[in-house]
Amino acid sequence: MALVFPNPEQTNNEGLLCYGGNLETDTLLQAYSMGIFPWYDKFSPILWWSPPIRMILKPDLFKPSKSLNSLIRKNIFEIKFDNDFETVIALCASTKRKGQKGTWITPEMIEAYIKLHNLGYAHSVEAWNNGKISGGLYGVSLGRAFFGESMFHLESNASKVAFYHLVKRLISWHFHFIDAQQNTDHLKSLGAYSVERKEFLNLLHKALQFKTIKGKWS
Q: What is the rounded distance in angstroms from the CA atom of residue 127 to the CA atom of residue 143?
């Protein structure tokens, strides 16, 4: 059974809205459609967030760096969509990152998002090199909004190349924005910017007026 969420405006200062509940498909889809997402660790209950400030990237404002454009032209990586979602989310959970201990992608999160993928709502973008996966990302798509969840790389710049091709795909499909959830300098350098929650929810409402492109994106 899907949860009944409070108004997203009723968060604390950090954006925490409520806790508990479940990660059933209906719950997750309702949460995303309201601008809410789960983020927690194995030591806490499920925490639901709607940050007061949100970073988004409008695909047509994407500004790839000169080095990224140069890398794209070299055509080192083969890009695949929805080829191996389970491996992507598992590597997002297990790949170590500087300054980060553990992961928020718990086993129950992995199971829940694999279900979303099998139903056509969650997608992966993968960069392959010499027959091996080198990096990638995954996220959730509703209407003309893409909610970025996590990315990883085993080879330098592989996830950046995957992101580049995601943006190009979303431009061709006239997506309104990518939700990056948290502010990062890297995304800001690519053209992402911060908006207040009210503006984000307004943008989300408009994006959800369009039909979701379900199924495999391959």
A: 25
pLDDT in tens, 100-124: 555 789 999 999 999 999 999 999 9
CB 137 within 8 A of CB 150: yes
How does residue 97 score in pLDDT terms, banded at 50, 70 and 90?
low
| 76 conformational bin, left if phi > 0, alpha if psi -120 to 50, beta if neither | alpha
How many domains does the chain divide into?
1
Q: How confident is the model at residue 16 (pLDDT cuts 50, 70, 90)?
A: very high
Residue 125 falls inside a structural domain: yes
Q: What are the angstrom distances between the C-alpha of 215 and each of 81, 84, 101?
A: 11, 14, 34
Determine, yes or no, domain membership for 217.
no
Segment 119-131 shows an average pLDDT of 97
Q: What is the CATH number of the domain that holds 181?
A: 3.40.630.70
pLDDT the model gives residue 114 = 98
Full domain range(s) for residue 126: 55-207
pTM assigned to the model: 0.95
